[in-house]
User: Fold this.
Amino acid sequence: MRIVRRKAVPGILLAVCVVLVAQLVESEPVRKKILDTLDVHEGDAVMVIGINLTTRVRYVRHFPYESGRELRIRISPFDISSDNTDALFRRETLVPSGHENLPLDEVVYEGDIEGGPYLTLLFSRHVDFWVEQGGDSRSIVVYVDEVAPEVPGQPVTETARE
Assistant:
């Protein structure tokens, strides 16, 4: 009888450990977030960047209004689930991938600054843009003009032509 108990105890302990580890892994809290995904569509002259969020938001305003290397979009989240409230006051980043011509370096959700939250888009070059609310209340759409900006040059004077 003792031989059976000695062999059974390690097996039972192993089974208990496996069950405990499985419960810990399963019950590990999922980090809630505000930024979900980026959708990028290239058109003839305009690139469309859809910033998808995990909660419903209302577009408030953006700055600068027409062009720049940085775009700050003020949003107002609403209809937030109770388990996602902590994410409102954090900072998150999405980095686009798979688009070679995309001048966008990153999208940052800034819930940790006064006057926010903001979506900040950082571009690799100066771009022209305009912003609007997405049709589903869970996205912001940014249109980027793909036309290359003019390269500044020296004006030609009459003496230079002679």
